[in-house]
Amino acid sequence: MKEMVQEGNGFAMKIDxxxxxxxxxxxxxxxxxxxxxxxxxxxxxxxxxxxxVSRVVSHARENNKKIVPACSFAHALFRRKKExxxxxxxxxx
Length: 93
Prior knowledge:
Blueprint: E1 2-6, E2 10-15, E3 18-28, E4 31-39, H1 48-62, E5 66-69, H2 72-80
Parallel strand pairs: 4-5
Antiparallel strand pairs: 1-2, 2-3, 3-4
């Protein structure tokens, strides 16, 4: 059975109770810093990483937070998704 659950500062996809994909974030003031995204090799290419980032985006919107996409996957997704631009806090370059 596949399920998506919130676990502390992140979300995990579980299949039969085993974590097969996850995303973690750290609250930092008015923002959530996405620090890590992982998808099991056997599930890659199925847009599960995008689903995880979308969960964090929804969580941020519900809690009036912005997002710092610090992990490379989330950063690349934020660059492509126009609908995320209003939440994106760009780190100093």
